[in-house]
Design brief:
159 residues, alpha/beta, UDP-galactose 4-epimerase, domain 1, 9 strands, two-stranded parallel ribbon
Amino acid sequence: MRVSAHAHSDGVQVYLFRFANIVGPRLRGAVIPDFIEKLKADSGELRILGNGLQEKSYMYISDCLDAMLTAIEGADDTVNTFNLGTQTTTSVNQIADIVCGELGLDPEYEYTGGDRGWDGDVPKMRLSIEKLSNLGWQPEHESDEAVREATRDLIAELQ
């Protein structure tokens, strides 16, 4: 049964969230920890999937939780759908620069080529957060800041 049909037929209020790239402590299996691990193995070179120009919204975990709470507390439709992200994006090259800067490294970047990092990747993505903004919510961290904070968290964890 579709969520909206269930909500309307059973009188249940539903919140649906579309997430940007959520970053923060304990993050694994994503670009930031991947770069940190690659640089720990070889500080002179960083292999980057694609061309490094892929650009997406990165949202710090505390902002994500705050956005969800704001939506739940402020929206009163039967079905409430929200995009969770920031108003800014960060490229893979910017992530590499942030990670390298936080580690105090200046490696050569090696690219695998193409406008996608992996099968199914999209070159650019930004979700509109207008509905959340209309509830008075704004992220504490913009995308670059979220990446930097998550990088610091992960460097400390992986020491």
